């Protein structure tokens, strides 16, 4: 559990710093270091934290059960993962109506993913993991709003093809995770029995 918690502290420490850092050009470390070096360091720290999270999460299986959700919540989680995956894809491609409407689709995707997994998993390590991601996504959404970052602006040009790509890509990733990749990556079947 120690490595798991250390990984969360490192990963979210970097993300909290990024959310709270000054954007004023004369104070912004990203401007002073340069985009490449800053993103390289940020990525390295995040990857170290993520590695510890993955290792520590697996090592902390069996740490205890906080609640035992009914099977229907696992089914609800499967349904919630569909919009989460679609929004995740939408966040990584040029602006479509989905991206414009959701403003910050990555943060919304993380919130949906975290809530769904909290509904379906009552193990201590799961609650800590998904609760941490949910709390950070809520915090970061507040911070981007405070900075005046409204996502794609009202005059942003949208491309409907991007919505089609987001839906098809999101459904494909959802199906691949559901039927094949989830047990390989996470050691747990996504389909409830």
Report on this structure.
The chain is mostly helical and 193 residues long. It has two domains: 1-60; 64-193, no CATH class. Helix content is 74%, strand content 0%. The protein contains eight helices and no strands. The protein has helices at 2-20, 29-33, 35-59, 71-91, 97-102, 105-120, 124-146, 160-186. α1 packs parallel to α7 and α6 (105-120) runs antiparallel to α7. The mean pLDDT is 94.
| Rg calc | 18 Å
Strand content: under 5%
Helix content: over 70%
Unreliable segments of 5+ consecutive residues: none
| Quaternary structure of the protein | single chain
Q: Tags for this entry?
A:
193 residues; mainly alpha; 2 domains; 8 helices
Q: Helices and strands in order, then pairings?
A:
Elements: H1 2-20, H2 29-33, H3 35-59, H4 71-91, H5 97-102, H6 105-120, H7 124-146, H8 160-186
Quick structural gist:
Helices cover 74% and strands 0% of the residues. With 193 residues, the protein is mostly helical.
């Amino acid at each position: 559990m120690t490595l798991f918690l250390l990984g969360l502290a490192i990963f979210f420490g970097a993300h909290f710093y990024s959310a709270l850092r000054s954007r004023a050009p004369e104070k912004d470390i990203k401007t002073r270091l340069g985009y490449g070096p800053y993103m390289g360091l940020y990525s390295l720290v995040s990857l170290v934290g993520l590695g510890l999270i993955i290792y520590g999460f697996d090592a902390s299986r069996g740490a205890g059960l906080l609640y035992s959700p009914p099977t229907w919540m696992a089914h609800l989680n499967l349904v919630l993962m569909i919009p989460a995956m679609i929004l995740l894809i939408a966040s990584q491609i040029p602006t479509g109506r989905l991206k414009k409407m959701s403003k910050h689709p990555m943060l919304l995707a993380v919130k949906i993913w975290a809530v769904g997994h909290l509904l379906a998993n009552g193990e201590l390590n799961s609650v800590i993991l998904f609760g941490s991601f949910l709390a950070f996504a809520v915090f970061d959404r507040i911070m981007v709003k405070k900075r005046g970052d409204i996502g794609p602006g009202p005059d942003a040009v949208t491309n409907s093809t991007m919505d089609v790509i987001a839906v098809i890509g999101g459904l494909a990733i959802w199906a691949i995770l559901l039927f094949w990749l989830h047990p390989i990556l996470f050691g747990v079947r996504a389909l409830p029995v």
